[in-house]
Amino acid sequence: MTIERHSRARKIELGQELLGRRKVYLDTRYWIILRETAAARRTDAASRKLLHFLRRGVNAGRLICPISADLFMELTKQANTPTRRQATARLIDELSLGVTSMDPQTLLATEAHRFLSAALHGEEAVHPMQELIWTKVAYALGDMYPKLDGAPPEDQLELQKRVFDHLWETPLSDLVAGMDDGTELRRDYTELTRDTNARNQEHRDELRSYENAYDVELRGAVEVVGEIAADIIAEMEARTTGSRPDPSPEQRAASVNMCRNLVYHAMRRPENRSAMRTLHVKASIHATMRWDKERRFKANDWHDFGHATFALTYCDAFLTEGPLRHLVTSRGSGLEDINGCRVASSADDALAIVRKILEDG
After folding, report:
1. Domain map (residue ranges) of the chain
2. I need a labelling partner for 23 at 20 to 30 A (CA). Which of 182, 237, 240, 352 fits?
3. 3-class secondary structure, 322
4. How many Cβ atoms from other residues are within 10 Å of residue 206's Cβ?
């Protein structure tokens, strides 16, 4: 047993426990709406009923409102007061039951690992993704394990398991209460946004169609996934042979390039996009942005696209703001069909979706 195996076992156990619950993903705007409703500072009928039915669904074991790394980071931007960040966190604890998605990088790696494993060993040999992608809020940004230099391996593992299990049960409200202003967790997207807009403007006349824009975005995303896939294949080889390869820089570069080509050509086939759905949805959203040649990225778009990517890939409903709803449902992209996710921006539409989920069971 290693701490990584212990972590994986806890996550699979959690994923199996959640199989009977429908997943309703709320972006930060909706968490604030419901926080204000719970405090009776917002009193419109649709918001009150929405909160009521979400609570009913969670308490009945019918649904859950998980969060994500993007939500976690946006939460830290709220003032650390009883009526703002702390109140939002308490409501998240209530409706999410402390559940979050894996961090985006780990989720992408998990999809790639499952895709390659299924290709080699068959679907029956791998867990469904819904059993692999969930963790607890303490690990929203990734797993972290303490290390004691010089400690015997068995003592170190025991410490790691105790700390892991303690944090696994720690509510979000406890985690964020002591974070001050949370600046240590925030990423400044200003430079990335500026550079992205500049590149898009430079190449705007080269785009001939949405499909062309999607291909450009897919090729860019595959650059990262190729590195991940090469690591996965090396790990698989080590398990098979019992020895870990030590490739030269040239061999490593060739392996990464091969994996990039493999993933790119696999993703050109629509039947493979469900398996690597995070890659597909992210490329689709960015392609939609690029094809609208007058539209410019804003710094907060990166978190918004993170919300949308996770919700559309693994949740049953996505409650968000109007412009983002329009973006992800426009052009007949089919993004709502990937996991049957229904998207709403108005409180009335959100209420209708949640009620339908509860009626359908």
Report:
1. 3-187+345-360, 191-298
2. 182
3. helix
4. 9
For residue 244, give Cα distances in angstroms to 97, 241, 293, 315: 40, 8, 47, 37
C-beta atoms surrounding 153 within 10 Å: 8
How far is the CA of 192 from the CAs of 85, 199, 297, in angstroms? 27, 11, 10
Instruction: Let me know: does 259 contact 224? Beta carbons within 8 Å.
Output: no
3-state DSSP call for residue 135? strand
Separation between Cα atoms, residue 278 and residue 70, nearest integer Å = 15
Q: How far apart are CA 182 and CA 76, in angstroms?
A: 5
113 close to 232: Cβ distance less than 8 angstroms: yes
In this predicted structure, the answer to whether residue 113 has a pLDDT above a threshold of 60 is: yes
Residue 201 has a pLDDT of 82
**What strand order describes the sheet that includes 22-26?**
63-64, 22-26, 317-319, 342-344
pLDDT at 241: 81
Higher per-residue pLDDT: 242 or 27: 27
Instruction: For the beta carbon of residue 36, count every other beta carbon within 10 angstroms.
Output: 17
At 217, the amino acid letter reads: E
pLDDT (tens digit, 9 = 90+) per residue, 41-93? 999 999 999 999 999 999 999 999 999 999 999 999 999 999 999 999 999 99
